[in-house]
Amino acid sequence: MSIGKLFIGASLATAFFAVLGTNSAHAAVQTCNWTGSAGDNKFSTAGNWSNCGSSAPQSGDVIRFPGTLAASVNLVNDLNVPLGGIVTVPNAQNSPTAMGFVYVIDKVELSDGAGIQVEDAAACDRPTGIKIGQVSSTGSVTVNTEAIYLNGPVLPTYMINGALSIENRWGLGLIEVKVGSTAAEVIVKSPHVYSPTCVDSGGRGAMPNEPFDYLQNISYNKLTLEKGSVASFGTSFAKPLTVGGGIGTTPAKVFYWPTRNEAQTASVPTSVSISGPITLNSDLLINVGDRATASITGVLTGTGKISKSPMATGTLLLKSTDNTSATSPSTVSFPATTTTITDSNTNAAIIAVENETVTLTGKRAGAYVAEKAILKGSGTLTGQLFVEANGTVAPGNSPGCLTAGTLILNGDYTFEIGGTDPCTGYDQIKATDTAAPNSVSLDSATATLTTARYKSYTPKQNQFFTIIDNQGPNQVLGTFKDLAEGATFEQDGIVFKISYKGGDGNDVTLTVQNVPTVPNTGGMVLKANPTLIAAVSIAGATVLAGAARLASRRR
Questions:
Q1: Is residue 70 part of a domain?
Q2: By Cβ atoms counted within 10 A, which residue in 108, 229, 422, 510 is the most buried?
């Protein structure tokens, strides 16, 4: 069975080729260059090859495809011999091949130790794309997934008796396979790089767009993650996992992305487990997505340890009862931290993680606020502000305005009032994207509103506050939890009426209905909680009755 949704990111390191396998029965292994000059597109035709000893490729030979194509070509492999490898040649990014022209090969048999590789080239050039209907080997093979063109209907069936090793230079090597693919083992290689200008330090991941599935259809026995590599698990994982080895210098990473609702606007609670044995020859970082809980329950051995990734926003539980590794069983959480951002960098985004408070007074491209994280400040986000359930956005520094292109609020909006003017007297979020279909989206099930009076400020009756300035063309999507259009609610002794059609017609406003005449000493809380009132009344009666009995005894 497969490992569920698995994408492979063997993003970038040093060294080029895995050694391509050879066949000892073929003494002079050649690298045969495809020309297609004979015009029949058959591998067995000698006229289609150059540098091949005036013949077609023999057992153990490497075949090489040039980096120029004017159109896609369908090729027939009628050699019936195992090849020593396939090499694709990178080409300039503006070439036809970079636009999707590829070699389509019906089948390839590879010898033990062979590979499908990309030849070294200039900075960031893309390789000639190859689509292969079936890849088979009686031994182990290495596939640089950058060489395998994934778009379109042709996906390979892998029939590998040994290990299938996967590597890539770009940071997100994808490998999709047909149902029925098999391998004894899957190995994700350390980062692989050809050009320094394309390097990103260590392994890196990128959030896959559902419902893409990676290695979902391949059956294998165990998984190895070399240092610096990245794997993403979409479901629970029960196979043996080995971590370490390779040329990488950073820990391997496992991602559990959050599960989104149908509208893709919020995460939903998800629980997964890694229950197979884990051999930690080096460290492993686990990045758990928001509202996801990942439990490690398998046997842990080795000198390495499992840690929560600094970018993780979900919950990681280390629950193994058989643990001789350096991992400490616990619920892993981050210490409370504060981060202040004052500069302008619209190419970077903010990720506020668990127990982190980020204050933004500068400018960023966007922000993601995780559960138990807080975003404050009076800065600007040119793109999206996304607040997960149980995350908090609190504009300003008591009070102030926070500006974003769009707002998706699934968590809490903490709103302070201390005067009559926005930004200086009370908090406000400005959503400035006038082209977005929904500049402001509120999750009616989880988005909450918390109001507070700054320096005990008491507003006047009928005074209104624009808490979200929606500058987009459309109405607000959704509402705060339990606060429909026109609803009234009481917080901090003040009764407000909420509207999502305020201001110029699509702003979120609060209008004061009445204000407290005496300081709020908790009576408003009791009024909103009749069960608590009853409990206090009963307790009070009990105390009074006890006092009366005590007094009667003393007479």
A1: yes
A2: 229
DSSP string, 415-436: EEE-SSSBTTTB-EEEE--SSS
Q: Is this structure's pTM higher than 0.70?
A: no
Contacts of 555 (CB under 8 A, 6+ apart): none
Q: How far is Cα 477 from Cα 263, in angstroms, rounded to an integer? A: 12
- Does 268 lie in the same domain as 169? no
How many structural domains compose the chain?
Answer: 3
Residue 548 C-alpha from the chain's centroid: 65
**What pLDDT is stored for residue 265 in this prediction?**
65
Lowest mean pLDDT among 41-55, 229-243, 321-335: 321-335
Q: Is 248 helix (H, G, I), strand (E, B) or coil?
A: coil
* Distance in angstroms (rounded) separating the CA atoms of residues 239 and 491: 52
Domain interval for residue 307: 258-333
pLDDT-based confidence at residue 171 (cuts at 50, 70, 90): very low
Q: What's 547's DSSP letter?
A: H
Of the candidates 405, 411, 406, the one whose C-alpha atom is nearest the C-alpha of residue 352 is: 411
Give the 3-state secondary structure of residue 534. helix
User: For residue 500, is it within any domain?
Assistant: yes
Helices (H), 310-383: none
312 in the same domain as 376:
no
What single-letter amino acid sits at 408? I
**Identity at 421, one-letter amino acid code:** D
pLDDT of residue 494: 94
Query: Residue type for 460, please?
Result: K
Contact 188, 226 (CB under 8 A): yes
The larger pLDDT score, comparing residue 277 to residue 187, is at 277
Same structural domain for residues 28 and 72? yes
| Cα gap 267→293, rounded to integer Å | 12
Give the length of the chain. Answer: 555
For residue 445, the SS3 value is coil
Provide φ and ψ at 539, rounded to 5°.
-65, -40
Q: Are 216 and 208 in contact (CB under 8 A)?
A: no
Q: What confidence tens digit (pLDDT) does each residue in 476-507 have?
A: 999 999 999 999 999 988 999 999 999 999 99
Stretch 435-457: mean pLDDT, rounded?
95
Q: Which residue's entry shows tokens 């109001």?
A: 451
